[in-house]
Specification:
By secondary structure, the protein is an all-alpha fold. It contains six helices and no strands. The relative contact order is 0.06.
Length: 126
C-alpha cells in the first residue's frame, strides 16, 4: 500500500507543470511530506531552470469575461457588416422568390440576347 502511494506521487510530479512559485512550493511540501530541506532543494532546482511568476495570475471575473465577449462580438459585426447584410439579403431573396435566384435569370437572358445578336451580325455563307 505504501508503494502505491509513492508511485502515485512520482507519477504526479513527473506530469506536474508549475505555473507559479507559490504553487511550486506547495507541491514540493506535499511531495516531500513537510520536509523543508528537500522541498527547498526541489524549488531551487525548478527555479534555476525556469522563470516563474511569484503567484498565479488572477483570472478575470464573470462580468469581465462577458464584457470582453460582447466587445469581440460587436467588433466582428462592425468589421464584417457588409458581408452580413449581403448574406441576409441573399437569404431573404431566396425566401421571397420561393427558391428562384433572380440574378441567374437576368444573366441567362442577357447571354441569350447577345447570342442572337451575334448570329444576326455574321454574314451568311452559301
Amino acid at each position: 500500500m505504501l508503494w502505491f502511494k509513492d508511485r502515485k506521487r512520482m507519477e504526479f510530479i513527473q506530469s506536474y507543470i508549475p505555473t507559479s512559485k507559490a504553487q511550486l512550493i506547495q507541491v514540493a511540501m506535499w511531495y516531500h511530506k513537510g520536509d523543508m530541506q528537500k522541498a527547498q532543494e526541489m524549488v531551487d532546482f525548478y527555479n534555476k531552470n525556469m522563470s516563474l511568476p511569484d503567484f498565479d495570475p488572477v483570472q478575470p471575473t464573470w462580468m469581465d469575461q462577458m464584457k470582453n465577449g460582447a466587445s469581440d462580438l460587436f467588433s466582428f459585426i462592425r468589421n464584417n457588416q457588409s458581408d452580413i447584410v449581403n448574406g441576409y439579403e441573399f437569404i431573404r431573396s431566396i425566401i421571397t422568390n420561393k427558391g428562384a435566384l433572380p440574378s441567374i435569370g437576368e444573366e441567362a437572358a442577357d447571354v441569350a440576347a447577345t447570342e442572337v445578336s451575334a448570329e444576326e451580325t455574321l454574314p451568311k455563307i452559301n
